[in-house]
Design brief:
- This protein is mainly beta.
- Strand 17 and strand 18 form a beta hairpin.
- Helix 1 packs parallel to helix 3.
């Protein structure tokens, strides 16, 4: 019996690993990895989003160290941030830059210096700068090599998170960084949703109060690494990792709060996921499952918000436990060709390398991307539920049927389970009846949804 239910896609995206002259960047919108050699002077190779996608190779003038680099969705404009105050742009034709860059500086306040914290493409001709002073939305006119400021939402900003899938941008404000302002960005419209406050406990990171007196207490600060925007069952949620505070009971562990983001509606906490461990976590979403990776113990847990949990009567917040026992991701062996002999047109032998799982240099992106820049590999996380029933006691297998019915690739697993149970000498007909009832209930639910859609 296998002891895993998560695996890395065998068709990994390979790229030049980070090194003395190579820096690696990731574009969350296009799911592409940029390997930049010598500031672009000796080449930029863009890989992804799939291993079958042909890489894009070009050169740019080295005008300083790159902070960020991203193509527009149609790959006709390349944006490059080399300084804290501006972003450079280059128009592309036939996969190559035309050699004439142009620059856009962020807005400044009288007597105060501003700083570009990040930028995101919203369409092939629009993008947003996230600065210390808020969000600046620009329309780009490539033929004229100019950008026009369309909207500016001023606020003191600590950091931001952006979800290309949901077109949601979230800004963090206040010294504690726990007042969040979400924006819905869709079809050229920019809608500011109501700001809201989230709870945060982090015993290791504090900020000093406005006065420097040592007698004043310090305040917990929410970090951007503990916040993400995820998409589950057609709904958008903001996830906030909560650490036990310094006064908590030693048995207290981390938990993940899920806030549902609703356009023109009140943002409220809907779910709390009990993570049963403390320390740093990273999160993915695979097939509507929220996956929690715990690097210190090198294990992962999965949660399904469709399954029943414990509801707090005073807040209507549902607390959920992991669906399955914690497990490790399936071991992965990377295969990579080494070198090339032009005269003979023969590639060298295939190198095999056992990858270190949960490596400290792993970086996780939404929804299901894991990158190891040290070895030059990008994976898509997948589920492997073939033997999942063997991981649970028999009294919980009825719940597991409901879990599998919500998975896109579990049809064969359920059919195999029915055949196995039917062929047993002492078949559990109550269990088979339960499967049949669950299937009929799901069919009725889907039929009702189709009728409502037609109306």
């Amino acid at each position: 019996m296998k002891d895993y239910y998560l695996k890395l896609d065998e068709n990994a995206v390979l790229f030049d690993p980070t090194g003395a002259v190579t820096n690696v960047f990731f574009d969350e919108s296009n799911h592409q990895v940029y390997a930049v050699r010598s500031g672009g002077e000796t080449g930029v190779v863009v890989s992804g989003p799939s291993p079958t996608q042909q890489s894009i190779t070009f050169r740019i003038t080295d005008k300083g160290s790159l902070i960020s680099i991203k193509f527009a969705p149609d790959h006709r404009i390349l944006a490059m941030q080399r300084s804290d105050h501006s972003v450079d742009f280059a128009n592309f034709s036939n996969g190559q830059p035309d050699g004439m860059e142009y620059t856009q500086k962020c807005k400044v306040r009288k007597g105060k210096n501003n700083k570009v914290l990040n930028f995101h493409w919203l369409s092939s001709t629009t993008l947003v700068f996230i600065t210390h002073f808020g969000a600046e939305f620009y329309q780009i006119h490539a033929e004229k090599r100019v950008l026009k400021l369309v909207k500016h939402f001023p606020c003191s900003t600590n950091w931001s998170v952006f979800s290309p899938t949901s077109s949601i941008l979230v800004l963090s404000t206040t010294p504690a960084a726990n007042i969040l302002i979400p924006f819905q960005l869709k079809n050229g419209q920019i809608v500011k949703l109501g700001k809201f406050e989230v709870d945060c406990y982090n015993p290791t990171t504090t900020i000093s109060p406005t006065t420097s007196s040592d007698n004043k207490p310090t305040t917990a600060k929410l970090l951007d690494r503990d916040v993400a925007v995820v998409h589950l069952y057609g709904q958008t949620y903001l996830t906030v990792l909560r650490h036990p505070n310094s006064t908590s009971n030693k048995d207290d562990k981390c938990r993940l709060d899920l806030y549902r983001l609703i356009k023109d509606g009140h943002v409220r906490k809907s779910f709390v996921l009990r993570l049963v461990k403390d320390g740093r976590f990273a999160f993915n979403v695979v097939d509507n499952l929220l996956v929690a990776h715990h690097q210190p113990s090198k294990i992962s847990m999965i949660f399904d918000i469709k399954l029943p949990g414990v509801c707090h009567s005073n807040s209507n917040v549902i607390c959920l436990e992991a669906v399955l026992p914690p497990c490790r991701i399936k071991p992965f062996t990377m295969r990579r060709r080494q070198g090339f002999d032009p005269p003979s047109n023969i590639t060298s032998m295939m190198e095999e390398r056992n990858c270190i799982l949960y490596a400290k240099n792993w970086v996780v992106f939404q929804p299901n991307i894991i990158i190891d820049a040290r070895i030059g590999c990008m994976w898509y996380l997948r589920t492997d539920l073939k033997d999942v029933f063997q991981l649970l006691p028999s009294d919980q297998q009825g719940l597991m049927v409901d879990f599998l019915l919500h998975r896109s690739s579990s049809k064969s697993v359920i059919i195999s389970l029915c055949h196995t149970e039917r062929d047993r000498s002492c078949a559990n007909f109550c269990f088979l009846f339960q499967i049949q009832s669950s299937l009929q209930g799901l069919h009725r639910q889907q039929r009702k949804c189709r009728l409502l859609t037609e109306l």
